């Protein structure tokens, strides 16, 4: 890609990343949330790789890191859900943290935490899929 | 009612494409069309005209304002995630198939019976 | 103190599935034993459930109480048949896991096999226990995604072709099922199986024509999914067991219409 495309992609991907973070963090008070924000986060990385070419990242190493975060975030979600068994109520997936004022950023108990973890999970998964396809294509073309 | 019938026609268009096309990529596209017709139906089931989004902070708004049904929307969101998984897996298989067989034509990819 | 045994059938395999990539970073051998231990625990739990009390137990995930007699939230239902199904699924999974410890050494990418195996186990358990239609769909999809990948695990020419055909048919089948569920929700405004049965038997309007339409879609979905309609071979036979349970649960003696 030419210099213009690469520079614009660099600038844009930072903005997309910040917007994705915004959507993930505000998941409980506005439309959006973990999945949509996670897709935005992943697309920031994918845009970088598409513009800069495959040598910009070390793809295989990145793939190990993303699959690690993918597993870790799901485990944390499950543990947070199982926390309901021990803390406060005796049920799984209950909203046992303090609720706060509706409409505030820090409110709704567990839900923002779930939404952030799901955002990490979705971003890591989509990026892993993209990396797996890219690595496979590279291996075939050799 | 017309909208629902159009939605069902979209379903049938996707089904037709799935049944007659020979190219693997076209099959995947047809599957996506069927998916999207069902998402449309689910959204239309929960929609009320002049309803607001089901994100409400004030209980008094609810008394004189219709709110669209949030349950089909969550169902559609879940189904979109599932469809994403389906599409990525099926496209991965398509790439692998193209590497093994060298073609996208389903009539030539027939080592197995059935 | 509630009986929390039901939720473990779903949470434990998921926990195992997503801890395997982390476990295999520490030690390569441990992951096979993790799966074997998890399925052994589940098998013991299901045997215990089979010889426990005979009445139907309902586990409300999250502890959501019904509002105006309309159930909300996710429910797991365990009656006699689903206890029996759980025993079959988990016993089979345990023996497969023990067998796989040695067998899978022939293949590369072992951690993916065990992750997929656990996901399939979780999906089957969830589909057997699911108390509402949409959960049934979701768990069925979890099972299906894992089995698509497991069919193509050896990446030979024929295996990938089989997996592709299975995916196209299975994807279409699950979309039929989703269409049926959407129509059912449109008609009854509920997803809970017991509540659907209640609404249908109490309603004054004659739903029989719409029901027949829905039945057709559900039958097509489940039939293609379990490959009863097509003549395509090469399917893991385990998939058959969940649809029997859920079919019978949705079927109510007073209401012979919705016989899945």
SSE arrangement:
The complex is a heterotrimer of chains A (142), B (114) and C (260).
Chain A: H1 3-25, H2 34-52, H3 59-86, H4 111-141
Helix pairs in contact in A: 1-2, 2-4, 3-4
Chain B: H1 2-20, H2 24-46, H3 61-64, H4 70-101
Helix pairs in contact in B: 1-2, 2-4
Chain C: H1 5-26, H2 30-50, E1 57-61, E2 74-78, H3 80-103, H4 110-129, H5 133-151, H6 157-188, H7 193-202, H8 208-225, H9 240-250
Antiparallel strand pairs in C: 1-2
Helix pairs in contact in C: 1-2, 1-4, 2-3, 3-4, 3-9, 4-5, 4-9, 5-6, 6-8
Q: What proportion strand of chain C? A: under 5%
Strand content of chain A: under 5%
The strands making up the biggest β-sheet of chain C line up spatially as: 1-2
Instruction: Specify the biggest β-sheet of chain C.
Output: 2 strands, antiparallel
Number of domains as seen in the coordinates of chain C: 1
Helix content percent band of chain A: over 70%
Structure description:
The complex is a heterotrimer of chains A (142), B (114) and C (260). By secondary structure, chain A is an all-alpha fold. Chain A has one domain. Chain A has helices spanning 3-25, 34-52, 59-86, 111-141. Chain A is flat and about 55 Å long. Chain A starts with a helix and ends with a helix. Chains B and C meet through helix 1, helix 2 and helix 4 of B and helix 5 and helix 6 of C.
Task: State the main characteristics.
heterotrimer, A: about 140 residues, mainly alpha, about 0% strand, C: about 260 residues, two-stranded antiparallel ribbon, 2 strands, disordered C terminus
Summarize the structure.
The complex is a heterotrimer of chains A (142), B (114) and C (260). Chain A is mostly helical.
């Amino acid at each position: 890609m030419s210099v213009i495309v690469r520079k614009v992609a660099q600038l844009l991907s930072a903005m997309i990343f910040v917007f994705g973070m915004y959507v993930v963090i505000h998941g409980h008070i506005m439309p959006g949330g973990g999945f949509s924000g996670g897709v935005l986060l992943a697309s920031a990385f994918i845009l970088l790789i598409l513009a800069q070419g495959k040598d910009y990242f070390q793809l295989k190493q990145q793939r190990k890191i993303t699959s690690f975060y993918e597993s870790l975030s799901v485990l944390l979600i499950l543990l947070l859900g199982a926390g309901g068994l021990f803390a406060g109520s005796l049920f799984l997936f209950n909203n046992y943290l303090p609720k706060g004022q509706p409409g505030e950023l820090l409110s709704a108990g567990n839900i923002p935490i779930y939404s952030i973890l799901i955002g990490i999970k979705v971003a890591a998964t989509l990026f892993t899929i993209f990396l797996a396809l890219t690595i496979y294509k590279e291996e075939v073309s050799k | 009612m017309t909208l629902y019938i159009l939605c069902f026609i979209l379903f049938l268009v996707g089904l037709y494409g799935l049944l007659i096309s020979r190219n693997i990529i076209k099959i995947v596209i047809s599957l996506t069309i069927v998916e999207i017709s069902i998402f449309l139906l689910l959204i239309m089931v929960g929609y009320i005209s002049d309803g607001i989004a089901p994100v409400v902070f004030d209980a008094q708004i609810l008394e004189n304002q219709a709110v669209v049904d949030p349950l089909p929307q969550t169902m559609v969101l879940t189904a979109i995630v599932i469809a994403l998984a389906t599409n990525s897996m099926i496209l991965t298989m398509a790439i692998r198939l193209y590497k093994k067989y060298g073609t996208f034509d389903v009539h030539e990819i027939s080592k197995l019976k059935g | 103190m509630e009986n929390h045994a039901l939720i473990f059938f779903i949470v434990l395999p998921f926990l195992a599935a997503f801890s395997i990539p982390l476990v295999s970073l520490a030690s390569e051998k441990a992951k096979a034993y993790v799966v074997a231990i998890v399925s052994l625990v589940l098998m013991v739990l299901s045997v215990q459930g089979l010889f426990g009390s005979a009445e139907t137990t309902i586990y409300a995930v999250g502890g959501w109480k019904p509002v105006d007699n309309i159930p909300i939230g996710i429910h797991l239902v365990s009656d006699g048949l689903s206890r029996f199904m759980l025993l079959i699924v988990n016993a089979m999974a345990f023996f497969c896991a023990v067998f796989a410890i040695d067998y899978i050494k022939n293949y590369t990418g072992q951690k993916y096999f065990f992750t997929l195996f656990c996901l399939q186990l979780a999906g089957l358990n969830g589909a057997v226990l699911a108390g509402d239609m949409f959960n049934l769909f979701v768990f069925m999809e979890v099972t299906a995604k894992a089995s698509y990948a497991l069919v193509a695990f050896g990446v030979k020419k024929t295996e990938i072709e089989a997996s592709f055909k299975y995916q196209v048919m299975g994807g279409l089948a699950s979309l039929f099922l989703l269409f049926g569920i959407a129509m059912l929700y449109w008609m009854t405004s509920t997803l809970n199986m017991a509540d659907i049965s209640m609404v249908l038997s109490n309603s004054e309007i004659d739903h029989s024509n719409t029901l027949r339409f829905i039945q057709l879609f559900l039958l097509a979905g489940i039939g293609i999914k379990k490959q009863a309609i097509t003549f395509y071979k090469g399917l893991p036979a385990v998939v058959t067991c969940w649809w029997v349970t859920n079919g019978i649960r949705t079927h109510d003696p007073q209401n012979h219409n919705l016989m899945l």
